[in-house]
Design brief:
This protein has about 350 residues and is of the alpha/beta class. It folds into 2 domains: about 240 residues, Type I PLP-dependent aspartate aminotransferase-like (Major domain) (Aspartate Aminotransferase, domain 2), CATH 3.40.640.10; about 100 residues, Alpha-Beta Complex (Aspartate Aminotransferase, domain 1). The chain has 9 helices and 14 strands. Strands 2-10-9-8-5-3-4 form a 7-stranded mixed beta sheet, sandwiched between helices. A 3-stranded antiparallel beta sheet has the order 11-12-14, covered by helices on one side. It has a two-stranded parallel ribbon with strand order 1-13. Helix 1 runs antiparallel to helix 6 and helix 3 packs across helix 4. The structure holds pyridoxal-5'-phosphate. Pyridoxal-5'-phosphate binds next to helix 3.
């Protein structure tokens, strides 16, 4: 039986997506060729790329609004520098919500002046800073919608008239947002969309071309846009599996549907964390992520017992990140409610026995 996969990333994908992906690796479209041995310029793959891009715009409700969709390589980590390379002329504002934001800040500093408008470093990033002001004269504002490691999630975004860039790696397609408020969204596929190997970039084309520096082609969004995301060989397998996952999501009812499921899963687990005296949450309640729930045992001596019980129940991937400790249960789109119930049952069993 398949394990209950709470892994933070790469993460669980829908069973039917895995089945279709494995079929395509052996025989794609009944062409008697593998998906991963055909040309990315072939009609069959070009149509996969087109379909994937259209699904992104459709699901995010960004059709006909001036956005381009790219599937790039180098992970979300390359976007930390690519965003700054393409957009940072003199000054940019960053919200520091922990590890990922911190890494983005470090890269952007190579290209200009940075203003850290808010930071939750004082409490090991266990909350989302609020009430900060974004200077009007910055080239853009950068934030991270969900901190995968600490388990915090931005529930609202600041009103800002300028260019807004958001790293949505770990919660894109999980909840309804007005995505048109963002000018550039990026997300590594392996958190909520597909396998590692491709990074989704959704970009409003009119924000480009405003920096003075020369940009190498591979790091220039414009080169990728002008070649429809085929400037060089794309990660065909990762794009294909992402397309299948997006189609799966669309067939289910899109983001409005999955958001409700995600809210149910998160409520089930957080209610147990708050109710069960053996557990406690790590982050500020109002900033809790619906994707990554972080928690600890109130009595550390029960760790071994709990870990053994989890293994027996088929629970995988709930160890906390090394910088936080404790546990982290990631509940991405493809994780069934039933898996969360199994985790909650295991927590209750620990309580009964102790
Ligand atoms: C995982 C993650 C990244 C890094 O992604 P890579 O694809 O490994 O470079 C960046 N930002 C966030 C929010 C993440 O969760």
């Amino acid at each position: 039986m398949k394990k209950h996969n709470f892994s933070a990333g790469p993460c669980i994908l829908p069973e039917e997506v895995l089945q279709k992906a494995s079929d395509a690796v052996l025989n794609f479209n009944n062409d008697n060729l593998s998906l991963i041995e055909i040309s990315h310029r072939s009609a069959s793959f070009v149509s996969v790329m087109e379909k994937a891009k259209n699904l992104v715009l459709e699901l995010l409700d960004l059709e006909d609004k001036g956005y381009k969709v790219l599937f790039l390589q180098g992970g979300a980590s390359t976007q930390f520098l690519m965003t700054a390379y393409n957009l940072l002329n003199s000054k940019a504002a960053y919200l520091n919500t922990g590890t990922w934001a911190d890494k983005a800040i470090k890269e952007a500093k190579l290209f200009g002046e940075l203003v850290e408008v808010g930071s939750s470093k004082d409490k090991n990033y266990n909350y989302i800073p609020k009430g900060y002001e974004i200077p009007k004269d910055v080239d853009y504002f950068h934030c991270t919608s969900n901190n995968t490691i600490f388990g915090t999630q931005m529930k609202s975004f600041p009103e800002f008239d300028g260019v807004t860039v958001c790293d949505m790696s770990s919660d894109i397609f999980s909840r309804q947002l007005d995505f048109s408020k963002f000018d550039l969204i990026y997300a590594g596929a392996q958190k909520n969309m597909g396998p590692a190997g491709t990074t989704l970039v959704v970009i409003k084309e009119d924000i480009l071309g405003k920096v003075d520096r020369v940009i190498p082609s591979m790091l220039n969004y414009q080169s990728h846009i002008s070649k429809d995301s085929m400037f060089n060989t794309p990660s065909v397998f990762a794009v294909y599996v992402s397309m299948l996952t997006l189609q799966w999501l669309k067939d289910l009812g899109g983001i409005p549907f999955i958001e409700k499921v995600n809210e149910k899963k998160a409520a089930l687990l957080y209610n147990e964390i708050d109710r069960n005296p053996l557990f406690e949450g790590i982050v500020a309640k109002e900033d809790r992520s619906n994707m990554n729930a972080t928690f600890t045992l109130t009595n550390e001596s029960l760790k071994e017992t709990f870990d053994i019980m989890c293994t027996k129940a088929g629970i995988n991937g709930i160890n906390g990140h090394r910088s936080v400790g404790g546990y982290r249960a990631s509940m991405y789109n493809a994780l069934p409610l039933y898996s969360v119930q199994v985790l909650v049952d295991t927590m209750q069993e620990l309580e009964k026995n102790n």
